[in-house]
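Suppose you are handed a protein chain with no further information: no name, no annotation, nothing but its sequence. What can you learn? This example shows the usual starting point.
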Amino acid sequence: MDIVDIVTVMERLGGVATWAQLSTSVAPAEIALAVETGRVHRTGRGRYALPTAHEARVAAHRLSAVVGLRSAAASYGWALKTQPERPEVIVPRGRKVRSRDQATTDVRWRRLADEDIAGWRTTPIRTVMDCATTLPFDEALAVADSALRVSTLAPSDLVVAAVRLPGRGRDAAMEVAWQADARSAGPFESIVRAISIGVPGLRLVPQVRLRLAGRLIRPDLVDRDLRIIVEADSHEFHTTREAIDRDCWRYDELVLDDWLVVRVSWVQAMFQQPWVEAVLRRAVDRQQAKLRTTIALARGYRPAE
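A reasonable first move is to predict its three-dimensional structure. Written in C-alpha cells, the prediction is:
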C-alpha cells in the first residue's frame, strides 16, 4: 500500500472520512499521529474530520460572530468540494471588524434572524441556502447533496427555503434545490453531476442499481435512456490487485452489454471541467446517433449505399 498524506486523502473525500476509507491508503500509525497533533479530529468512533469546524468556532467566539457557509457545513459533518482557506463567519450588518481579524477570518456581513441560528452556527437549512447563493454551482451542489445525505433535511425543505428567498440569489438557490440528490456518494460525484447538468440531453442519476452478468452493481452516475455510465474514478490512492481485477471485470462487462463508460479523475473534475463537459457532450452525441440508427432500422429504413 502506498502511503500518502492523510490531509490530502481527507480533502479528496470532502473533509470527512471513516476509518475504513482512510485505512485503504493511510497507515494506522499515521492516522493516530494526525489525531494526536490536531491535523485531523476524531469526531466519533471510526469517524474523522479536518479541523475546519473547530477553527471556525474559535474564530467566531473571538469575534462574537456566527459560524456560517462552508465552515458551518463542515461543523455538521457535511463533505465539501474544498475546505475554506479561512474560517467563514457571519456578523451583523454595520459591525466593525478590525483589519487584522479580517486578514485571518472570512467575515460576511448579513442579517440573521433568530430562527437562522443554532447555537454558534447557522441552522442546516440556512447553511445550505447561504452556500447556494454564494458559492459556485458545483460547490453548492456538493453541500446540498451532503446535507440531504447525512442530515434530517428533505428535498422539499430546500425547495421551500429557496422559494422564500428574496429576488437576489433565488434563482441560484432554486437550481441547487431542484438538483440536490441524497443518493450522491460524495462531493467528487456531485461535482461531476454538476458539470453534466450543462449538457443537453444528458440526465445522470447517482448510484443506480444495475444487474450485470448475474451481479448487482451500483455505478456512480447512470443515464439509462442513453446507456451512458460516468464513473468518478477515485482509485489513485488505493488501487490493489483485487481492485484492478474488479474494475476490469466491471468495465469489460459494461462495454459488452452496450454501455458507453466515461471515466473522470478527481483532477479532471476539479481543474479540467470544460474538457469533462466536452467529453460528455461527445458521449451524448454518439449515443443519440446510435439510438437514431437503431430506431431507423427497426422501422425498416436502410442507410444509403
